[in-house]
Structures are given as structure tokens and as C-alpha cells.
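Run log // design_07
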């Protein structure tokens, strides 16, 4: 076997790896010995030639995504172990054989020791998104491991990496079925039914990470007038209806999402007149709003995809939350979220704090929310905690 490329770091740039942070930034590299092939497994050393980690190499700001802090070969055995380990955790969490929930995240990138790999599980269907060339190159082995781990609990595998893998020459086959050919199906989440289209839907088809927060919305909904802003396929709305809301309005700028929301409302509460879904822009809706809602959910798309647009993103959160504080009825509850990896919990909280002060409302924090445990976060990789939420009471 050809010798692996060796990457030597600049003096002092080894500290984050010694604390098991799984990324090597290009600026930390002193020298590269050997070919610089994207997706290759490379070894990383400090400037005294001491081994630190092995990982996938790629051109760009994150040059190496660490696979192991011990020397490893990424052969079939290696992937078998990693994938089985991830499956086992979901078994421990009671997700694999659960009569009320059959949708969960099977592989959560760094949180499962597999940077660049996301796998979501929809009642027998695995939807894969690779974010790195290294994971793309190892897909065949990973898929074999998935079949071994899940056995007859897996009948379809869809690779949906068209939008997540960078455009590079020679990288083909980004999307398509790797097992079976079913394009959509129905899943259960906490006993509620949802129609999911993993081929055409956003991300892998459904926002699995809001499962626990949706349940909490259900608990607060009795008798309330609910606005689910940025509703996508209506997840929060269905729980609000189940929780006894007086009325539920779902708003999303995507007409397709609104169609799916109506379908999901019909699936769970056929003919129920309490629900209305509207395809509209959030800010326009706030401007023309007539209803006095007393439960408001704000779950916008990631405003900051990169660190360099952070301040604009924080402005966006402030503006949006201010609209909500100005509009909500006295005694109302706001569920507000940020799913931007680049926005820290503290920064998000500050934006919401300024929004509340600008609207001159008295606001108390009731809950601080995060992603559920099938989206685990490595304790060494804080960026993995991307989902932040606050439940607020507004006097
Ligand atoms: N709350 C959802 C997930 C929201 S994802 C759930 O539980 O599944 C963010 C949603 O915001 C997307 O569906 C997107 O179509 C919508 N969106 C993006 N920009 C918007 C805007 N300006 N106004 C309203 N909706 C918007």
C-alpha cells in the first residue's frame, strides 16, 4: 500500500487536536509530505513529528476532518464498528424499536465520530448526506455496514448528497437510490403521522431535530391561538392541535411545504377546521397580522451558514424576534430557535434579549432547548450543538 500523506502542523497549532477537536484548519498546516488528494486518509503530526490524528483531507478552510486520534485503517471492519456503534446508541435511546416514533438520526457527523456524514432513518429508509469527499469515497463500505447493522430494519437507502457535497471534478453519483426505490413514505413521531418525501423535501426530508421541542409545544397549547412561523411540513402545528389549541396557523414561504402541511394536518386531524396553512413570507405576515396569537413558534432557516456573516445573522434574529415580541398577546408564550452552527447559544440569547428590550416587554425564560440525543454532540466539538431554543413567557 502507498504511504499515506503526512501533514505537519505549525508550532503551537497542535493544541486543539490535543483536546480532541476534530478539525484541522488550513492555516495551521506547516508542510504536506506526499500527494494532496482530496478525500484521502492522511496522518497529522505536530512540528516535532509526533502523531496526532488521522482524517480525511480536503482543500478549503477545514483541511482535515479527523476520523481517529489513533492510527487506523478505514477498512470494512472500521466502518462496521463505527456504524454499529451509532446504531447501538439509538437502540439504547429506545428509538430503534419504538411503536410511537420510527424516525431518528442514525449518524450525526462529528457527534458519532464520522465528520462529513449524516444519515437519517425514516421507518426502514436511510437517507444519506455526505458533506466531505472522504465520506463520499467511502460510501460503498459505509452502505454495506449499514445493511449489516440494521438487517431487516432497512429496505431503502437514498443518497442525497447533490446539495451537500462540494462541486469537484470527478465526483459523480451524488444522489440516487443505493437500495430499493421508494421516494416517499409515512413516519410516526410521538404517535403523530407525517408524510415525508426524502427525494424532493428540504434537507433529508423532515426536521427530526425538533422532536422534543414539538412535544413541549403540545404541552403548552391547550386553549391557545398558535402561530407556527417557518412551519415547513407543519410538525409543530400537528402537536399544537393534539395539545388542544383553539386555532393553529402555519406559515411558510414555500408553497410545497404548505401543501405537505395540509396533508399532514389531514392525516392526523381529518376535517379539523382549527388549522389553516398559508404560503407567505414571515415579515410580510407579521406586518399584516390581525390575529392576537398567544403561542408563537419561530423556527427560521439557518441565518448564518458561515462565521463571516455572523453579525448580519444576529441582526436577523433580533429583527424577527422583535416582531414576535411586539405582536404576541399578554401572557403569551414564544418558542424561538436558531439552527445556525455559527451562532453560539450566548449570541442567540443576546439577540433575543435586545429584541425583547426594544419591544419593551417583560420576558421570562421558561426552558432552554437543544437538539435531542439522537443528534449527539462531541464534548470536544461545541460547534456540533447547532440547535438552540428558548421558551419565553411574555407578560
Ligand atoms: N419548523 C420546521 C422547520 C423549519 S425549516 C419543522 O419543524 O419542520 C425553515 C423553513 O423556513 C423552511 O421550510 C423554509 O421554506 C421557510 N422559510 C425560509 N424563509 C422564509 C421566509 N422569509 N418566510 C417564511 N418562511 C420561510
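design_07 sequence
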Amino acid at each position: 500500500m502507498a504511504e499515506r500523506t503526512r501533514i505537519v502542523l505549525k508550532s503551537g497549532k497542535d493544541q486543539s487536536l490535543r483536546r480532541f477537536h476534530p478539525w484541522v484548519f488550513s492555516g495551521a498546516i506547516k508542510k504536506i509530505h506526499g500527494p494532496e488528494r482530496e478525500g484521502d486518509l492522511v496522518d497529522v503530526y505536530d512540528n516535532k513529528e509526533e502523531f496526532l490524528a488521522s482524517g480525511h483531507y480536503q482543500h478549503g478552510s477545514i483541511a482535515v476532518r479527523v476520523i481517529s486520534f489513533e492510527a487506523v485503517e478505514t477498512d470494512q471492519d472500521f466502518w462496521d464498528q463505527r456504524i454499529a456503534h451509532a446504531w447501538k446508541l439509538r437502540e439504547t435511546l429506545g428509538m430503534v424499536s419504538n411503536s410511537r416514533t420510527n424516525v431518528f438520526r442514525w449518524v450525526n457527523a462529528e457527534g458519532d465520530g464520522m465528520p462529513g456524514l449524516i444519515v437519517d432513518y425514516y421507518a426502514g429508509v436511510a437517507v444519506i448526506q455526505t458533506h466531505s469527499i472522504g465520506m463520499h469515497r467511502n460510501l460503498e463500505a459505509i452502505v454495506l455496514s449499514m445493511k449489516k447493522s440494521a438487517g431487516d430494519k432497512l429496505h431503502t437507502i437514498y443518497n442525497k448528497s447533490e446539495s451537500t457535497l462540494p462541486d469537484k471534478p470527478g465526483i459523480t453519483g451524488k444522489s440516487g437510490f443505493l437500495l430499493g426505490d421508494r421516494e416517499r413514505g409515512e413516519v410516526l413521531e410521538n404517535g403523530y403521522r407525517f408524510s415525508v418525501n426524502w427525494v424532493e423535501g428540504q434537507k433529508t426530508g423532515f426536521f427530526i431535530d425538533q422532536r422534543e421541542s414539538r412535544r413541549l409545544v403540545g404541552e403548552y397549547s391547550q386553549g391557545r391561538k398558535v402561530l407556527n412561523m417557518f412551519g415547513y411540513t407543519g410538525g409543530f402545528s400537528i402537536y399544537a392541535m393534539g395539545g388542544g389549541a383553539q386555532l393553529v396557523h402555519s406559515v411558510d414561504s414555500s408553497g410545497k411545504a404548505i401543501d405537505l402541511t395540509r396533508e399532514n394536518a389531514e392525516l392526523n386531524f381529518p376535517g379539523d377546521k382549527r388549522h389553516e396553512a398559508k404560503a407567505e413570507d414571515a415579515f410580510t405576515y407579521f406586518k399584516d397580522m390581525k390575529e392576537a396569537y398567544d403561542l408563537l413558534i419561530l423556527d427560521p432557516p439557518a441565518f448564518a451558514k458561515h462565521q463571516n456573516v455572523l453579525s448580519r445573522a444576529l441582526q436577523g434574529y433580533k429583527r424577527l424576534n422583535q416582531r414576535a415580541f411586539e405582536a404576541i398577546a399578554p401572557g403569551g408564550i414564544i418558542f424561538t430557535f436558531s439552527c445556525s452552527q455559527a451562532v453560539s447559544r450566548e449570541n442567540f440569547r443576546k439577540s433575543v434579549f435586545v429584541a425583547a428590550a426594544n419591544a419593551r416587554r417583560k420576558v421570562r425564560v421558561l426552558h432552554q432547548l437543544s437538539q435531542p440525543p439522537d443528534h449527539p454532540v462531541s464534548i470536544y466539538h461545541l460547534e456540533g450543538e447547532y440547535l438552540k431554543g428558548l421558551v419565553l413567557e411574555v407578560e
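The pocket of S-adenosyl-L-homocysteine is lined by residues 202, 207, 210, 230-233, 235-236, 252-254, 257, 281-282, 299-301 (CB under 6 Å).
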